[in-house]
């Protein structure tokens, strides 16, 4: 577009799926290093800004909301564990739980007892870190739908990418099938309530979907699925060699990490090298499929800026961790209000800026259907159990409750 | 272009060959129609062209099939993908991707075609099949006709020499079917493509065919030839051909135009029999009590209303055909009648009870519905098991359902799994299951989809028998021949409202789109079926 | 019924890769117990993240190995459909009770179609269901691995007569549910109770630097106190489902396998001898 690089390329387009994932992973890496709630809160805010501004209107946007729910659940569990199983950190007592006697072989462990606010705070900070990571991953899901990411999967994993795509597009369809079969049970004079009702759905739905899988496979075969390119023997040997070397490297690296007495070179560096080699083998292995890509997502300068922005945030937090760890850890003894270090703020601001100046997604034309047959699914991407049941209800499937209330008034 | 050289096919777990000694040569640029009863081997014949039989399905192939010089023995389906395009029976089951554009490009991607070539071809195909406004739509949100066009488009982007289609119009209403078929016609004439097409509803398509292959089934030899020759003596034939047989014409017409030209004398001869038809009407059994009533019913999904204010009453002995284009609300109407959908407003009354509030056992004793996918109703391990369970569920004497099934479809074997039955047999089993408790009201949703003429005749007999017993039958269909054959009354639904309601003869002849072939041929005389014509000819003073 | 079909054959090289990667995977799961106290990363908070990053690559390597000969379209489609069934069932399992009907699909699918298929089915089902229900978190690679093992082991179970089959699968279902819970808890343990480098936050937390016997004891208590209840519920739920719906599901899978004709021979032979009339011109 213009010579000043991708930052100025504002034409609305969809970014490469990997760019947003890298950005979100950078933020997640930043969150993994800190329990300072202010930093974590700022990270969540940055993801919220990005999702609000850049998420487009695909059904995957619901993943962000689902991530919040999951994060809240995880936080709750962590705090509950902290209350029940935590160390008695001396401080202000808040409540006292009955202490559960523990068998002798587990002596030294305390379940219940007096709970101090320091204890709760520690559990909260810890849980907040995990919750933030979950929210970052949810943002990645919302910003670039997984189906688009699966299109960019390396060639060696193509078949499995297809399987995952098929699974994700069929799952909502199956739920509608189940609703239709349940209606048909009523037409046979059988009860649709209770365990027998549910189990009776299994056979027909499974049969129907397996039959459909065969039609799908025939269609794939007919359209040339599985054509292999001729790969010279040397390349094949190289691929196997790389993969083998990668696995060996990873094994040695993990052994080195585990065994403290070995030289430091055997640990992380070997692991890293192993991962690189294995990744290279995977990429090279993609040569065996003779596929091309229709309108592949381009990786332009904008994608690089976005990815770098996320990792700038991670780098800033890591830097502070090594130089002054106290700033990124929330202190519990004494329980004081945490301070906000300035370097991570700058790093996160860069991440937010990268998200804001990225091109906006074009509006999607997912027009609502106009036919009334209940067998058509009206949504293409569904992200939580609530959304699934909601979409089925919207299709007008009558539940027993509806029938009963309607019957009363008839 | 396609050569079958003494081909026989035996499937892995079968002992008898499905096709026996088939030798056939189809030249380039022909539209070849494959006809025959269900289960006769039409699908096998089509899949041989593609290599799906035996590479995909297993089995033994005797002989040789060659497509554009490539032998299917050495070329599995993926090697033939660039010269053969295949469109299966259910287009939505064959979609591999999410959106229209990606689906069109999938075959080309598999072949490793360069991106710019792919782009150009996708644009061409979108234009050719008028899919351009739908390009970014999700496949699941398309209508049946649009999905069928996308399936055809995705088979065409590789520029194949041969296009093979297995029942492309079975799920479509008449106007969508005509669109698809005229599109195929254009492909043959403008692009010189060879098209091989299997179809049950011959009346729509036989006029376009250059050659007809009749597969009688049971390993009997194929009958191949010009359409008029083959149709003249075929066991399955469209109504105009049957008319030619009844009227004794020497030339067999295939299209309405030919038929009208040949029927000039017949029309004059029959002009005097018209009053007899009206007399027929009067001698119909008198309408009895009302069995099913709908009063100002409004039904919808979520916030969208699909049926606006339906008022309807159906009495004993009536056979009502509900017609209308796909999306007009026919299925919803039937679901509401049986209580699967609860209306926002208005009331539904089946034998003085609201079907939505009945217990399932009571519901089944009053009203039965055979849904669009008859397989939804069947979930036992075998046909015999299915019959036994129905007897139990409805408290019938053991063996009732099996007897009912034998009267409808005596050829069905008790030990078969319902999923392995052919379309016609599955429908017969579903009918037996629904009819066994002998409900006073019977609803059928699109029963003739995928049925061949023989099975359709059995269905007509069953419906007539039920009506003679005083049952009310409501059929939602867009098969106008069925409605002409068996319905006493016809309703037309459009946009969620009933736009016409009256005796079949009047409704069906008043609209050119909905008229059956005989009506179109003999217009303005109000004859609907070959049966009408036969009776009228027999009653003429010089009957012969 | 014909013999079990093998949808994804496991060659020699794939087997070796599977074994090696499984061992590495086990190490990744059990690092809190296996790591020596003096190891460099044992004190840091990094170990779980490192493993969470390594596991996806290992899974990818195995998957690429298994797919190396090219996976049949039928196997891919069957895989997709069964994973879809599992994914659709996942919201039905209440998170609190731990009941997961999705497991039944993985176990029965692996049993019906072999170890290679079971491995891939487990991984794909976990991935697809996590993406669909928004359960993506750092535990996902661990879940994929554990699910893959459950499927693979199901594929290695002996093939029995109909009645015995269900009991065998029910028993396996119970054992594998408990094992899955144990593995997931082991991998989640450091996250559940604190990773802060200030030291343990709980008497039940992983103590970096403590000898493995102590860690094992602490973990056992933690496991019994927390996850055991959910695991037992999951196990019982799986047993019930297998016994009740197992026959229908296995029947459907066998029929599908027969129809798909994974192993059916394809022969090309000369024309049949002619008996009587030939074909029409």
How would you portray this structure in words?
The complex is a heterotrimer of chains A (410), B (544) and C (281). Chain A has helices at residues 17-32, 37-54, 62-85, 117-143, 146-151, 158-187, 194-222, 233-258, 268-285, 301-323, 325-328, 342-357, 385-394, 400-409; strands spanning 93-100, 111-116. Mean pLDDT of chain A is 77; it is low at 1-9 and 366-410. In chain A, helix 6 (158-187) crosses helix 7 (194-222) and helix 8 packs antiparallel against helix 9. Chain A is mainly alpha-helical. In chain A, strands 1-2 form a two-stranded antiparallel ribbon. The model of chain B has no long low-confidence stretch (mean pLDDT 87). Chain B folds into 2 domains: 2-233, P-loop containing nucleotide triphosphate hydrolases (Rossmann fold, 3-Layer(aba) Sandwich); 290-487, Rossmann fold (3-Layer(aba) Sandwich). Chain C is mainly α and 281 residues long. Chain C has one domain (12-260): Arp2/3 complex 21 kDa subunit ARPC3, CATH 1.10.1760. Chain C has helices at residues 12-29, 31-34, 47-66, 73-89, 102-113, 115-133, 140-155, 162-192, 212-225, 227-260, and one strand at residues 266-269. In chain C, helix 5 runs antiparallel to helix 6 (115-133). Classes of the chains: A mainly alpha (410), B alpha/beta (544), C mainly alpha (281). Chains A and C meet through helix 3, helix 4, helix 6, helix 7 and helix 8 of A and helix 1, helix 3, helix 4, helix 6 and helix 9 of C. Strand 4 of chain B pairs parallel with strand 1 (266-269) of chain C.
H-E order of chain C: HHHHHHHHHHE
**CATH class annotation of the largest domain in chain B:** Alpha Beta
Helix content of chain B: 25-40%
Low-confidence stretches of chain B at least 5 residues in length (pLDDT < 50)?
A: none
How many β-strand stretches of chain C?
Answer: 1
Report the average pLDDT across residues of chain C.
79
Give the tally of β-strands of chain B.
Answer: 19
- Give me the side-by-side strand order of the main sheet of chain B: 6-7-8-3-9-10
Q: What CATH architecture of the largest domain in chain B would you give?
A: 3-Layer(aba) Sandwich
Count of alpha/pi helices of chain B: 23
What class do helices, strands and sheet pairing of chain C give? mainly alpha
Radius of gyration of chain C: 22 Å
CATH superfamily membership of the largest domain in chain B: P-loop containing nucleotide triphosphate hydrolases
């Amino acid at each position: 577009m213009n010579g000043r690089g991708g930052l100025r390329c504002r034409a609305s387009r969809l970014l490469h799926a990997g760019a947003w994932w890298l950005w979100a992973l950078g933020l997640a890496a930043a969150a993994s290093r800190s329990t300072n709630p202010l930093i974590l809160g700022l990270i969540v805010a940055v993801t919220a800004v990005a999702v609000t501004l850049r998420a487009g209107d695909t059904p995957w946007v619901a993943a962000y909301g689902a991530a919040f729910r999951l994060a809240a659940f995880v936080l709750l569990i962590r705090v509950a564990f902290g209350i029940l199983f935590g160390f008695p950190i001396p401080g202000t007592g808040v409540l006292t739980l009955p202490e559960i006697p523990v068998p002798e072989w587990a002596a030294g462990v305390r379940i219940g007892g007096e709970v101090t606010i320091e204890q709760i705070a520690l559990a909260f900070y810890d849980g907040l870190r995990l919750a933030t990571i979950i929210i970052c991953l949810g943002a990645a899901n919302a910003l670039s739908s997984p189906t688009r990411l699966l299109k960019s999967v390396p060639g060696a994993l193509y078949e499995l990418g297809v399987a995952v795509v098929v699974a994700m597009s069929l799952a909502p369809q199956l739920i509608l099938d189940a609703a239709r079969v349940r209606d048909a049970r009523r037409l046979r004079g059988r009860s649709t309530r209770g365990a027998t009702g549910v189990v009776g759905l299994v056979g027909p739905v499974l049969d129907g979907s397996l039959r459909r899988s065969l039609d799908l496979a025939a269609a794939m075969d007919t359209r040339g699925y599985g054509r292999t390119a001729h790969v010279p023997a040397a390349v094949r040997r190289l691929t196997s060699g790389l993969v083998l070397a990668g696995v060996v490297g990873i094994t040695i690296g993990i052994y080195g990490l585990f065994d403290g007495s070995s030289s430091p070179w055997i640990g992380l560096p070997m692991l890293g090298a192993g991962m690189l080699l294995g990744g290279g083998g995977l990429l090279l292995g993609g040569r065996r499929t003779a596929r091309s890509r229709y309108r592949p997502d381009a990786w332009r300068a904008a994608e690089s800026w976005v990815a770098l922005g996320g990792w700038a945030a991670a780098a800033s937090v890591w830097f502070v961790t090594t130089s002054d760890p106290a700033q990124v850890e929330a202190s519990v003894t004494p329980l004081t209000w945490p301070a906000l270090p300035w370097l991570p703020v700058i790093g996160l601001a860069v991440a937010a800026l990268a998200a804001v100046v990225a091109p906006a997604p074009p509006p999607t034309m997912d027009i609502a259907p106009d036919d009334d047959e209940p067998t058509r699914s009206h949504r293409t991407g569904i992200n939580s159990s609530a959304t699934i049941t909601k979409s089925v209800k919207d299709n007008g499937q009558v539940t027993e409750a509806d029938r009963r209330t309607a019957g009363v008034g008839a | 272009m396609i050569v079958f050289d003494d081909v026989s096919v035996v499937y892995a777990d079968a002992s008898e060959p499905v096709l026996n000694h088939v030798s056939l040569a189809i030249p380039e640029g022909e539209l070849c129609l494959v006809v025959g009863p269900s289960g006769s081997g039409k699908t096998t014949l089509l899949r041989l062209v593609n290599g799906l039989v035996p590479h995909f399905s297993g089995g033994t192939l005797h002989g040789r099939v060659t497509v554009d010089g490539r032998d299917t023995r050495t070329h599995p389906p993926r090697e033939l993908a660039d010269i053969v395009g295949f469109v299966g029976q259910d287009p939505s089951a064959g979609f591999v991707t999410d959106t229209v554009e990606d689906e069109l490009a999938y075959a080309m991607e598999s072949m490793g075609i360069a991106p710019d070539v792919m782009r150009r071809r996708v644009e061409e195909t979108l234009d050719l099949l008028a899919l351009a406004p739908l390009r970014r739509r999700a496949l699941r949100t398309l209508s049946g006709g649009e999905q069928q066009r996308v399936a055809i488009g995705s088979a065409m982007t590789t520029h194949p020499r041969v296009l093979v289609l297995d029942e492309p119009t079975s799920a479509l209403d008449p106007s969508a079917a005509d669109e698809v078929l005229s599109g195929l016609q254009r492909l043959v004439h403008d692009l010189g493509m060879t098209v091989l097409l299997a179809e049950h509803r011959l009346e729509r398509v036989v006029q376009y065919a250059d050659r007809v292959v009749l597969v009688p089934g049971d390993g009997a030899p194929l009958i191949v030839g010009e359409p008029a020759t083959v149709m003249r003596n075929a066991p399955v034939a469209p109504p105009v051909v049957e008319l030619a047989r009844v009227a004794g014409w020497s030339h067999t017409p295939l299209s309405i135009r030919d038929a009208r030209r040949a029927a000039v004398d017949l029309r004059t001869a029959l002009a005097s029999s018209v009053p007899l038809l009206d007399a027929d009407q009067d001698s119909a059994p008198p309408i009895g009590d009302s069995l099913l009533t709908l009063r100002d019913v409004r039904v919808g999904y979520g916030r969208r209303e699909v049926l606006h204010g339906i008022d309807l009453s159906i009495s004993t002995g009536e056979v009502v055909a509900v017609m209308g284009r796909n999306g007009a609300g026919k299925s919803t109407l039937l679901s509401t009648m049986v209580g699967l959908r609860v209306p926002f407003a208005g009331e539904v009354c089946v034998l003085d009870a609201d079907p939505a509030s009945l217990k399932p056992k009571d519901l089944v004793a009053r009203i039965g519905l055979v849904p669009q996918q008859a397989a939804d109703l069947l979930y036992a391990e075998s046909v015999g098991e299915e019959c036994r369970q129905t007897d139990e569920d409805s408290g019938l004497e053991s063996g009732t359902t099996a007897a009912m099934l034998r009267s409808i479809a005596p050829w069905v074997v008790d030990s078969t799994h319902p999923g392995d039955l052919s379309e016609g047999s599955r429908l017969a089993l579903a009918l037996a299951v629904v009819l066994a408790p002998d409900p006073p009201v019977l609803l059928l949703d699109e029963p003739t989809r995928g049925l061949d003429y023989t099975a359709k005749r059995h269905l007509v007999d069953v419906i007539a028998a039920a009506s003679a017993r005083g049952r009310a039958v409501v059929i939602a269909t867009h098969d106008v021949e069925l409605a002409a054959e068996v319905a006493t009354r016809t309703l037309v639904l459009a946009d969620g409202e009933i736009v016409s309601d009256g005796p079949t003869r009047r409704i069906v002849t008043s609209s050119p789109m909905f008229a059956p072939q005989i009506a179109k041929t003999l217009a303005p005389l109000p004859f609907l079926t070959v049966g009408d014509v036969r009776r009228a000819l027999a009653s003429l003073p010089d009957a012969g | 019924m014909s013999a079990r079909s093998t949808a994804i054959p496991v060659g020699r090289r794939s087997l070796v890769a599977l074994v090696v990667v499984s061992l590495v995977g086990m190490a990744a799961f059990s690092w809190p117990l296996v790591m020596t106290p003096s190891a460099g990363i044992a004190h840091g908070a990094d170990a779980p993240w490192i493993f969470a990053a390594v596991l996806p690559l290992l899974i990818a390597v195995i998957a690429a190995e298994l797919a190396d000969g090219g996976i049949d379209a039928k196997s891919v489609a069957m895989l997709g459909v069964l994973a879809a069934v599992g994914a659709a069932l996942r919201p039905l399992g209440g998170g609190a009770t731990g009941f997961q009907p999705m497991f039944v699909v993985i176990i029965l699918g692996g049993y019906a179609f072999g170890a290679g298929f079971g491995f891939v089915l487990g991984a794909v089902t976990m991935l697809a269901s996590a993406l669909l229900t928004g359960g993506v978190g750092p535990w996902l690679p661990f879940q994929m691995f554990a699910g893959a093992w459950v499927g693979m082991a199901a594929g290695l179970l002996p093939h029995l007569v109909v009645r015995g089959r269900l009991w065998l699968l029910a028993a396996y279902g119970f054992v594998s549910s408990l094992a899955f819970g144990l593995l997931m808890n082991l991998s989640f343990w450091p996250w559940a109770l604190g990773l802060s480098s200030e030291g343990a936050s709980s008497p039940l937390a992983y103590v970096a630097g403590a000898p493995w016997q102590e860690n094992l004891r602490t973990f056992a208590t933690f496991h019994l106190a927390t996850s055991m209840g959910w695991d037992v519920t999951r196990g019982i739920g799986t047993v019930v489902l297998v016994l009740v719906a197992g026959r229908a599901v296995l029947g459907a899978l066998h029929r599908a396998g027969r129809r798909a004709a994974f192993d059916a021979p394809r022969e090309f032979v000369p024309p049949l001898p002619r008996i009587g009339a030939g074909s029409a011109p």
